[in-house]
Amino acid sequence: MRSRGIACAIAAAVSYGMNPLFAVPLYRLGYTPDGVLFFRYCFAAVLLGVWCACRKKSLKVSLAEFGWSSFAGLLFAISSLSLFAAYLKMDAGIASTLLFVYPVMVAVIMAICFHERLSWITCCCIALSSLGIALLGRNQSGQIISVAGIAFVMVSAISYAVYLVSVNRSRMRTMPAEKLTFYVLLSGAIFFWVRLRFGFALRGDFCPQAWCNIAGLALICAILSMVCTNLALQTVGATVTAIFGALEPVTAVFCGVTVLGETLTRRILLGIVLILAAVILITLQNSGKPSAAPDKE
């Protein structure tokens, strides 16, 4: 069961790392982050709901489960909005790599809120990731790329870290992954619909290219990523799920450089290496620990 959870964590990271591949072309067609994310969440919720109906999977939840999943949806929506806003301020590959400090934030949250020991390795990880952020946040001349962009990514990382811990440490841990994902997507879609003034602020070119990118965001970056994330959280726990997210920034940088024409410099590479090194250290620290979540058949 642990191998299945690890496979889900890897699939979640790669699929979520493909966000820039679909989001940036939509920005070029006149879409705003709220508009892009509304379509992503809404289409994903509808498709997942239809799939559950065809498979005769119940979406019935208790009031407590609805409340928890709505709270998780709000956290996930805030994380998505902050990251997509950062794409407008800096290269998407850099933004996605900066987001990857969330595994360290997960470890810190677990130490502060659940009294897990904050070891010297975790402290080293914090230092390494901070240095990586400093390198990625500045250009070749040493000037800050975008204060607003870095701030958006940090808000995204914190929100996502809290989401991971919340799913793993609440009654959401025992909810079927499809059901949890559906209500997270539904609450996120409502959140963005309200932010778009109930659709009146929605704008963009509704051409075939736009619909293809929207479909990619919904199917790959939303449904596939979130279902796999929730399955991983429920089988191998929050820390391991965050660790295998190392493939997320690698995927985003690869897409940015090969498809979107973004620049890859030695400074960026060094920043990426430092952040990934922090995650590898946490991996080594937790490799001998039992899963935080029980195995499920």
Describe the overall structure:
The C terminus is likely disordered. The longest helix is centred in the C-terminal third of the chain and has 29 residues. The protein is mainly alpha-helical. The chain is built from 13 helices and no strands. α2 packs antiparallel against α10. It has one domain. The protein starts with a helix and ends in an 11-residue tail after the last helix.
What does the secondary structure layout of this molecule look like, with pairings?
Elements: H1 2-17, H2 19-28, H3 33-54, H4 63-86, H5 92-99, H6 102-114, H7 120-136, H8 147-169, H9 177-195, H10 208-236, H11 238-243, H12 247-258, H13 266-286
What descriptive keywords fit this protein?
297 residues, mainly alpha, disordered C terminus
Number of strands: 0
Number of domains: 1
Order of secondary-structure elements = HHHHHHHHHHHHH
**Terminus-to-terminus distance:** 8 Å
**Structural shape:** globular
Q: Please give the share of residues in helix.
A: over 70%
What Rg is obtained from the alpha carbons, in whole angstroms? Answer: 18 Å
Total count of helical runs of at least 4 residues: 13
Summarize the structure.
The protein starts with a helix and ends in an 11-residue tail after the last helix. With 297 residues, the protein is an all-alpha fold.
